[in-house]
Design a protein that fits this description.
The protein is α+β, with helices and mostly antiparallel strands and 383 residues long. Helix content is 28%, strand content 13%. It has two domains: 124 residues, Phosphorylase Kinase, domain 1 (2-Layer Sandwich); 176 residues, Transferase(Phosphotransferase) domain 1 (Transferase(Phosphotransferase), domain 1, Orthogonal Bundle), CATH 1.10.510. The protein has eleven helices and eleven strands. The chain has a five-stranded antiparallel sheet. A two-stranded antiparallel sheet has the order 1-2. The longest helix is centred in the middle third of the chain and has 20 residues. It is globular, with a radius of gyration of 20 Å. It holds the Pfam family Pkinase.
């Protein structure tokens, strides 16, 4: 089992966000990002899998267009009122070791005092202003105390942010998507309880192997596409598909994965999307372009899935640079790196699917149904 430094087998962490505090995505293209200091969310290094490329040790920090994002969460919460299932968390669950620490949450292994079952719990501290809606008389302040040094001081979530993720997850029911077992809330935190996934992140599995054989990558990718198809059929867009957010249910079992962390997920029910968010190495070009007034849709998840597939087959990311500005410039024009000799060993069909996924124009990008029927995936059975 991974330690807290390499994340753990459950809700690994909250996504890295692309709108820079007190600046815009436009600044990333035209200025040195290292000059900004008023930022809050730490990007994650790709050093574990960059065995062929220069490690990206320099990290960048991002924050979210919070006004727009929180308004989306408030609309979802208002349209889908849901009662928390348990208020007194500590009376029902005992808290064990830390499985992972993210920007907005800490993930703990917990035990159900009634059944003895081991589960995973994503603990999300509430913003101070949000606590006013709680009544001390009806909620004892005996929840888990998250240490100050575990989360960034500016990364505390609003209640709307948290319930946004929960409500979207409750709309989904698929074997390759994490499910919410229980939700608790007290004066300090919201607790999102799910099954304990023991296999670790796909990122770590890839780091151990260097790259995946096409047969193994095909099995994983088929499951990912089926999860996305289910989400999109319910008008939900993940917006942060990446290796860290794909978890193996059991160690070394590539035939059972789950997509996790819906912290940036949203619905298309109210129209196209405009919020700039995601992870720099995986974000779709149209998401970056939305800062300039354009919109985007579920096609952005297909681009991110293409980045995942590229990583699995080659062992390195298609877009990489020690400068976030340069990285995003490469993403914006789809300048993927196919120069490594490893591509000489990868089938024509796999390369064809990758290029169809990493098409800059979302209207010309391959759809999920087209991807599922692509020649490279034919004959893939998950039975």
């Amino acid at each position: 089992m991974e330690d807290t430094k390499t994340r753990g087998p459950s809700f690994a962490e909250r996504p890295f966000l692309l709108s820079r505090a007190n600046s815009s995505p436009d600044d990333m293209f035209h200025s040195d990002s290292s000059q900004h200091s008023d930022t809050v969310v730490i990007d994650r290094t790709f050093e574990p899998i960059l065995h062929k490329k220069q490690s990206q040790k320099k990290t960048e920090k991002f924050t979210l267009d919070h006004e727009r994002y929180s308004s989306e969460g408030a609309q979802l919460a208002a349209a889908n009122p849901v009662q928390t299932m348990v208020v007194d968390f500590s009376s029902r669950y005992s808290v064990g070791r830390t499985l992972g620490v993210g920007t907005f949450s800490v993930v703990k292994e917990i035990r159900d005092r009634h059944t003895g079952a081991s589960l995973a719990c994503k603990i999300v501290p509430l913003a101070c202003d949000d606590l006013t809606h709680q009544k001390a008389a009806s909620c004892k302040p005996n929840g888990v105390q998250v240490k100050n040094d575990q989360l960034d001081a500016c990364s505390i979530s609003t209640r709307e942010d948290i319930w946004r993720e929960i409500l979207l997850l409750r709309r989904l029911d698929h074997p390759n998507i994490i499910s919410v077992r229980d939700v608790c809330e007290d004066m300090r935190n919201v607790y999102i309880i799910s099954d304990l996934l023991k296999g670790g992140e796909l990122l770590h599995a890839l780091a151990e192997r260097g790259s995946f054989a096409e047969e193994d990558a095909r099995e994983i990718f088929m499951q990912l596409l089926l999860a996305l198809k289910h989400m999109h059929s319910r008008q939900i867009v993940h917006r942060d598909v990446k290796l860290e957010n794909i978890i193996l249910v059991q160690k070394d079992d590539l035939r059972s994965i789950k997509l996790i962390d819906f912290g940036l997920a949203t619905t298309l029910e109210d129209g196209a999307l405009k919020t700039v968010c995601g992870t720099p190495q995986y974000v779709a070009p149209e998401v970056l372009h939305s800062h300039f007034g354009s919109c985007y849709g579920s096609e952005c998840d297909l681009w991110s899935a293409g980045v995942v597939l590229f990583n699995m087959l080659s062992g390195y990311p298609p877009f990489h640079s020690t400068s976030v500005r340069t990285l995003l410039q490469k993403v914006a024009v789809g300048s993927a790196d196919y120069c490594d000799p490893v591509w000489e060993l990868i089938s024509t069909e796999a390369r064809s699917l990758l290029k169809a996924l990493l098409t800059v124009d979302p209207k010309a990008r391959i759809t999920i149904d087209e991807a599922l029927s692509h020649a490279w995936l034919k004959g893939c059975s998950l039975d």
